[in-house]
Amino acid sequence: MSELWPVPERVTNGAVTPINSLAAWREHWLRAANDPNGFWLDVARDLIVWQQEPQQGLVGDYTTVQDQPFAWFADGRLNITESCIDRHLAERPDDIAILWEGDEPTDTRAISFRELHRDVCKLANALTHHGIQKGDRVIIYMGMVAEAAIAMLACARVGAVHSVVFGGFSSEALRDRVRDCNAELVITQDEGLRGGRRIPLKETVDRALLGEAGVRRVIMYERTGAEVGMVEGRDISWADAVDGMAEQCTPVVCDAEDPLYILYTSGSTGKPKGLVHTCGGYITYTAYTHRTVFDLRPGDIYACVADVGWVTGHSYIVYGPLANGATTFMFESTPVYPDAGRYWDMVERHKINIFYTAPTAIRTLAAESDELVTRYDRSSLRVLGTVGEPINPEAWVWYREVVGEERCTIVDTWWQTETGGICISPIAPATPTKPGSATLPMPGIMPLLVDSDGHEQHGPTSGHLCIAHPWPGQARTVWGDHARYVATYFSTYPGRYFTGDGCRRDADGYYWITGRVDDVINVSGHRMGTAEFESAILVLDEVAECAVVGFPHPVKGQGVYAFVVMQPGAQPGEALEKRMQDALRQQIGAHARADRYQFIPGLPKTRSGKVMRRIMRKVVEGRSDELGDVSTLADPTVVDAIVAGFRGI
Ligand code: PRX
Question: φ, ψ for residue 483 (rounded to 5)?
Fold first, then answer.
C-alpha cells in the first residue's frame, strides 16, 4: 500500500505552523540544510526564554566527536523551566498546564500554570533544602502521576540532572541506574496504580537501595496511602518535604550545554547506556518539533499517552508541550481499563484534539469491536500520532478511518531516545501520508541510507539509516563513558550518526523504517537488548549458554524467543522456564518476558566462536528454507536440531 492519502481539510484549515504545505516544508528543509546555524539560532531565540541569548550555533561535528561532544548554542544561558512555566504564568496563569486522569476514569485533576509554578518551586526549594545542587543527579521512579512531571521540572529548576527510571523496572535494574549515575536523591511514590493493580514502587526502591550509601534522601509521594516502611533519617514524604517551603524559587541559570537529564536505554551490547540530553538544544528541538509536527493551536488539548519513564514522555508529555504552553494530558492507566474504549472515552470527555500513542496499543484496540470506538464522540480529534515501532498499514488505516473518521491526519513519527525528538514524520497540515511510512525528514534532519560498506545509496533504495549532520536535540554523550557513545553511534560509519535502524526510501523520497538491524528488540514499543535477556537467563546454574532473538508478533510488534543450552544433567521443562521468567522479571522488570523457550544441544557458532543469530532469527521467522550454507559452522548438526525442535510461534 503506497498510495498517498491527502491531508483532510479539517487539518489544513486554520493551520498555524508556517509549514502548511509541501512547498513550505521543502523551503524550510532546504534553509535548515543550507544554513543549520542560522536556522536553529532563529528557532532557539524565537521559541525559548534565554537569560543570555546564544550567538553560537554548532561547535564540533561527527568527525570531532571522538575528542569531545559537539555543542549547540554553547554561549547561551537559560533555565528551561522559565520556558515551560514562568512565561505562561505571566500571560495566562489560569490556563491548564497538566490535565491528569488517574487509573479510575472519575479521578481527574487540572493543574494550572500558576499551580504548576507553585508546586515546582516548592519541591525545588525542598531539593535545595536537602542539599541538592546544580549538577547533582536525582532518580525519579514513579508512575504516571502529575508529581512525576513536577519532580522533573523541580530538578531542572535547581539545575539538578534527573534520571527517570520507568516504574516497571525491577530493583536490580533500578540499582544499576542509581549506581551508574551516582544519584544522591530518589523521588518515588508509595504505590503506583495501573489497571486496578497496585505497583509497590517504594518497596522496590528500598530493595534497590539496600547497601547504597550514596543516596542520602528518598522523597515519597503518597499516591495510595498504603502502609510502607520509611527508613529513619533517609526517607521523607513529599507532603512533609514541601511543607513550609517558599512558593517562589529563583531558577538556577545553566549553560545551554549543561545536562538536563540522563535517560537509560538499551543497545546491542552490555548494560543500558545513560544518554545525556542538554538544556538549550533539547528544549529548542522538542518545542520546535512538537508545535510543528502536530500543528499545535491555541486552546488545543494535547494528549500523549506514553509513560514519562521513556523518552516520548520526556519530550512530548513534559518538555515540548509545556515549552509551547499547551495543555498536556497525563494518563495513569492502560488503554484497556476498565475496557478497550478508555482512550476514546477520554477523547470525548476531555475534548482532546491531538492524540499520540503507539502501534502496539492501536493493534490491541483494533482487535476489539469498533463499537468501543464509535460509541464515543471523537469530533474534537484533528491529529493522530504514532511512535515507537513500525506501524503496519492495516493498523494505520484503522486508526485513520475508524478512530479518525477520515477527518484526521496520521503522523507516524520516527525518532529515538538518542535523537531527543521527532526526526522523520509528516507535518500535520503539510504532508500527504502513506500507511506505514514515516514520510519526510524534519527541517535540520539530513537522513541518508548506506549499504553495509557505508556507501551512500541515492534515490529509491534500502539501507541502514544514518544522519549526516547534528541537530540541537541530539544526545551529546553517554553518562560517564564518552568512548562508548562514539563507538556505538559513530564508528560503524565514520562521520555519520548510525541509528541502528533499517530503512527504505521510495520514489517520492518517503522513508519507511523497517526495524532494528542490530540486537535490539522492540516489544510493545519497549526497547530491550538481547544481551540483557541473555545475561539475566545465564544467571541460572542450569543454563550453559543462551541466545535471544526477536520474531514478528501480530500485536506486540516483536516477541522474544530464547534458545537455551543446558548444563549436562539439567532438566528442561516448565519449571526451568518459570525460573528463567523469574530471573528476567527480577533483573530487568515485568515487561521483560520471553514468549518462547527452546532447549537446544548447542548454539550455532562459526569456527571462530561467533554466535550466528541470523540463523536463529530465520528459523523463528519461519524461513528455515533460507538458511543458506551452514557447512562452515563449527557444528552444523545444531542447526538441524534447532529446526527440528522449533514448534512455531
Ligand atoms: O527502531 C526504531 C523504533 O524505536 C527505536 C527507538 O526506540 P526508543 O529509543 O525507545 O524510542 C522510542 C520512542 C521515540 C527506533 O530505533 N521506532 C521509533 N519510532 C518509530 C520506530 N520504528 C518505526 N516507526 C516509528 N515511527
Answer: -60, -35
Amino acid at site 496: R
Expressed in angstroms, the distance from the first to the final Cα of the chain is 26
Query: How far is Cα of residue 629 from the mean position of the Cα atoms in its chain?
Result: 39
Residue 241 sits at the vertex; the CA angle it makes with 237 and 246, to the nearest 5 degrees, is 155
**Amino acid at residue number 336:** V
- Scan for cell 539545575, then name that residue: 159
Which of the listed residues 314, 415, 497, 591 should we mutate to test ligand 1's pocket, taking the one with most ligand atoms within 8 A of CB? Answer: 415
Return the closest-CA partner of residue 411 out of 444, 386, 378.
386
Contact 388, 363 (CB under 8 A): no
CB distance 528 to 594 below 8 Å: no
Task: Please compute, for residue 77, the number of CA atoms within 13 A of its CA located in the half-sphere on the CB side.
Answer: 6
- Sequence-distant (≥ 6) Cβ neighbours of residue 579 within 8 angstroms: 540
Enter the pTM of the model.
0.97
Residue 628 is predicted with a pLDDT of: 86
CA distances (Å), 416 to each of 277, 357, 389, in order? 12, 15, 10
Ligand 1 centroid from CA 618, angstroms = 23
Mutation to probe ligand 1, out of 384, 386, 527 (largest number of atoms < 8 A from CB): 527
Going through 371-446 in order, the beta strands assigned E by DSSP cover: 383-387, 409-413
Per-residue cell: 463 = 539501507
Contact 649, 620 (CB under 8 A): yes
Q: Which residues of the chain are modeled with pLDDT < 50? A: 1
Q: Which three cell numbers stand for residue 228?
A: 510502607
Residue 531 CB: number of other CB atoms within 10 A? 17
Closest C-alpha among 255, 283, 288 to residue 81: 283
Q: pLDDT tens across 584-623, in order?
A: 999 999 999 999 999 999 999 999 899 999 999 999 999 9
Instruction: Provide the pLDDT for residue 131.
Output: 98
Tell me 144's DSSP state: S
Nearest by Cα to 149 from 192, 178, 177, 111 = 111
> What pLDDT, on a 0 to 100 scale, did the predictor assign at position 270?
85
Atom of ligand 1 nearest to the CA of 425: 26
Q: How far is the CA of 278 from the centre of ligand 1 (A)?
A: 21
Residue 259, preceding peptide bond in cis (omega within 30° of 0): no
